[in-house]
Amino acid sequence: MAEESVPEGRSLKELSEEELWELINDNRHRISLGVRPCILLPYLRQVKVLTEVDEDEILSCHNLTNRCMRTSYMLDLLRTQGRNGAVALLEGLMIHYPVLYTHVTGRKPSTEPSRFSGLIKYSELTEYLIRAVTGMQTELQEARNEAGKMSTRCSSLESEVSQLMEQEEKCSHLQTENERLQRHLSSLQREVTKLKDEKCDLYIRYTTSIEEKSAINGRLHDLNLQVSFCLKISLHELSTEKGSASPYLFMILSCLVSLTCQAHKDILQQDLAEAIDSQVELAEHLKSYREENEKLLRDKQGVCVCLSFAIITNEEKHANSA
Q1: pLDDT value at position 70?
Q2: What domains are defined for the chain?
Q3: Which residues are CB-neighbours of 256 under 8 A, at least 6 positions away?
Q4: Are 49 and 88 in contact (CB under 8 A)?
Q5: What is the C-alpha to C-alpha distance for residues 205 and 199, in angstroms, rounded to an integer?
Q6: What GO CC terms are in its UniProt record (predicted)?
Q7: Closest CA to 119 of 50, 203, 176
Q8: CA atoms within 13 A on the CB side of 70
Q9: Cβ within 8 Å of residue 278, ≥6 positions away
Q10: pLDDT in tens, the chain (322 residues)
Q11: Concatenated DSSP letters for 148-169?
Q12: What are phi and psi of 154, to 5 degrees?
């Protein structure tokens, strides 16, 4: 561990140049990963171990493509400054990276003047420390502000996620309702088709019944005419043969002719009444089927409107979510 590399009872000031750089090189990887050159460069320039040209080269060289490479190059430049470079680096870590300083040296950081090497005057050191503390406080405040913004942003995102989940749930309900309306619409369409088929069957049956009834009435009319004709002939023969025919038989034949005519008239009246009743019944059936058909069409239109509204609402929800 780093703490074991510093003999107890000896301060960093008592260590030789080689011992200091051995301490740094043993932790070079950790320093390269944890240090930002832009933080340490102001102090390193203050103690005059690096120049402005060195700073520009560290921060602007195109060959140094990442922070670790820039930090490693800064360590190489400090190595050319010998012991002062090592001491300045460790003092910079003590000021700006106290945790890393403890890992490297095994000692707790301190801002007491006695802990510094005297590379710069006390007044200059005090002024730098004040600026460093002020900068740290500013960075801390900025970090807190940024944390506050991030917290607000997180709350906003959580609210948006909650709204999106609610919209997703509503969309799921709308989708379920849409599927139910689709099934209901299909059922109504099948019902309409069934009613149309029943209506066609009813028309066919009615037409067949009319034709059968017309044929029966025609046949009955022909038979009535034949019977009436036969009776009239018989009555005529009897009337010409009164002397030989029985008056009672003549009266019977007259009654038969009269009854036949009356029966023919009654049959015609009955046929007319049945035809009227059939027309009335058919009209009632047609009216009932028409009303039921209109009701189904209204239900179908209502389902289509609800379905269209659900689809439009679903699309609007997805558009707002996007």
Answers
A1: 92
A2: 17-111 (1.10.533.10)
A3: 231
A4: yes
A5: 10
A6: cytoplasm
A7: 50
A8: 21
A9: 206, 209, 210
A10: 444 444 444 667 778 889 889 989 999 999 999 999 998 898 888 888 899 999 999 998 888 889 999 999 999 999 999 988 998 899 889 888 889 989 988 888 776 655 666 576 666 666 676 676 777 777 778 888 888 899 889 988 998 898 899 888 888 888 888 888 888 888 888 888 888 888 888 878 888 878 877 787 777 777 777 776 776 676 666 667 654 445 655 566 566 666 666 666 666 667 667 767 766 776 777 777 778 777 777 877 777 777 677 677 766 766 666 5
A11: HHHHHHHHHHHHHHHHHHHHHH
A12: -60, -45
Q: Are 184 and 302 in contact (CB under 8 A)?
A: no
Residue 226 identity: Q
How far is Cα 139 from Cα 243, in angstroms, rounded to an integer? 152
Total residue length of the chain: 322
Both tokens assigned to 62: 């195109």
Residue with tokens 């945790």: 99
User: What's the per-residue H, E or C state across 224-263?
Assistant: HHHHHHHHHHHHHHHHHCCCCCCHHHHHHHHHHHHHHHHH
Residue 287, helix vs strand vs coil:
helix
Two tokens, residue 77: 């430049």
Asked if residues 6 and 23 have their Cβ atoms less than 8 Å apart, the reply is yes
* Contacts (Cβ under 8 Å, ≥6 apart) of 47: 84, 88, 91, 119, 120
Helix axes 37-46, 122-240, angle to 10 degrees: 160
